[in-house]
Design a protein that fits this description.
With 407 residues, the protein is mostly beta strands. The chain has helices at residues 2-33, 349-354; strands at residues 45-47, 61-66, 70-71, 73-78, 83-85, 92-93, 105-111, 120-125, 129-131, 137-141, 144-145, 152-154, 156-157, 166-169, 179-180, 184-189, 194-197, 201-203, 216-219, 221-222, 231-233, 242-243, 247-251, 258-260, 264-266, 279-281, 295-297, 310-315, 320-321, 327-331, 334-336, 341-342, 345-347, 358-359, 367-369, 374-378, 393-395.
């Protein structure tokens, strides 16, 4: 009896141990298969501290809060092996209201593509206006657009201060009319004896400033140049200024001296002399050679020629030199010789039609005959000479040719 009890007790303990062992193995396997790994990282979001634990099993939740500037609700569920986004959501940038327009200006996006958190816009003013606000940008923040709306102000330039003898063209008819961007003013002096110092036209620019300083009118003064060996008349007394229109006259008082240049100069509107001051030189040469009608010089013309120096002329096309001499020579300050170019004759078709004549040879056409050349005519068939004392072969004499006629 006692031995039977001992056997039963041993069997009971073995059964309890086996059950406990089996329970322990099952418990460890269940723990391993129902746990989730480290919590996932969600962009622009932080996990809520209330859902933080040392380990997570099936059915546990992770709740994320979106960071500043982002909106949405993200929840992950442990399915026993991994984390699953319960709603497949994310944290998106917060949107700002549509930016406000400003009078006389506009905005453009300079950072970002939509009106969402961290997008920046920039305001610019239209032509004729300028930005007067310290800041011209606004950024979409978590609480809305940053900064105040900028302000564009119409560009106005200050009117010119009245100056003596200065005429301003382009001022408004009334003093309360502003001079706006792009407005132009033109300036002149009220006397021909004055010159404008500075630009004659200015424009109101983008910065509210004129494109150039205002000009002024000054009296036209010519400086007296150095004079050597030339007598001059007309210099003002006591070194008084030489004004616009004043004349100076020059001549050579020493015998044997020749004035090279113009004998008279005038103070011009630019404050310069009309010509260079002349010189007196010991030369009994000649100035430029005389003009010959219908002729030109073979070589370049000079302003001074020495005595015995000569120049050669050539007649223009169809003009004929009269004689064999085509030279002129400087002799003791004067040009000697005679060059003459004789004219050609021109007979037009109208001339021949009026006299009812035609060319002896060839078709009717305009004819050119140099001096002493001949042209022969005839009467058309059925017509006869009007005068027998006028020959049908005529010669050109210095541009003149007599034409026969027919009836």
């Amino acid at each position: 009896m006692e031995s039977s009890f001992v056997v039963w007790y041993i069997f009971f303990l073995a059964s309890v141990y086996t059950s406990a062992l089996d329970a322990g193995v099952d418990s460890d396997h269940s723990s391993k298969t129902s746990a989730c790994p480290e919590i996932p990282i969600v962009e622009n979001a932080d996990v809520s501290t209330t859902s933080l634990k040392s380990n997570y099993t099936k059915g546990d939740l992770l709740i994320y809060s979106c960071q500043q500037g982002y909106t949405g609700r993200v929840t992950f569920v442990c399915d026993g092996q991994k984390w699953r986004n319960a709603r497949n959501t994310k944290c998106s940038r917060k949107r700002c209201q549509l930016p406000e327009d400003i009078p006389n200006g506009r905005f453009v996006v300079i950072n970002g593509t939509e009106f969402v958190y961290e997008t920046t816009i920039k305001y610019t003013c239209k032509t004729g206006y300028r930005m007067v606000s310290l800041t011209d940008t606004r950024t979409c923040l978590a609480e809305g657009w940053s900064n105040h709306l900028p302000h564009c102000e119409e560009i106005i330039c200050s009117p010119p201060v009245a100056k003596d003898n200065l005429i301003v063209d382009g001022l408004p008819d009334y003093d309360d009319n502003p001079l706006k961007y792009g407005h132009q003013l033109k300036f002149t002096c009220n006397s021909v004896e004055l010159k404008l110092v500075g630009t004659n036209e200015i424009t109101c620019g983008e910065n509210g400033e004129w494109s150039h300083p205002f000009p002024k009118c000054e009296e036209i003064i010519c400086e007296l140049e150095a004079i050597h060996g030339v007598s001059v008349f007309g210099v003002p007394q006591n070194n008084a200024p030489i004004k616009f229109g004043h004349k100076l006259f020059f001549h050579c008082s020493q015998p044997g001296m020749v004035l090279i240049g113009r004998p008279e100069v005038t103070c011009s509107a630019e404050g310069k002399w009309s010509n260079s001051f002349p010189l007196c030189e010991v030369r009994k040469g000649c100035g430029p050679p005389p003009y010959v009608e219908f002729a030109g010089l073979v070589a370049l013309k000079k302003t001074f020629y020495n005595s015995e120096e000569r120049v050669e002329y050539h007649c223009q096309r169809l003009y004929t030199l009269d004689g064999d001499n085509n030279f002129m020579t400087c002799v003791q300050g004067k040009w000697t010789g005679s060059v003459r170019c004789l004219k050609p004759c021109i007979v037009t078709i109208d001339d021949m039609d009026n006299n009812k004549i035609i060319l002896l040879k060839g078709p009717q056409r305009i004819m050119y005959a140099p001096h002493k050349d001949h042209i022969t005519f005839k009467c058309p068939d059925g017509r006869y000479p009007t005068r027998k004392d006028v020959a049908f072969r005529q010669q050109c004499i210095n541009g003149v040719m007599y034409l026969p006629s027919c009836y």
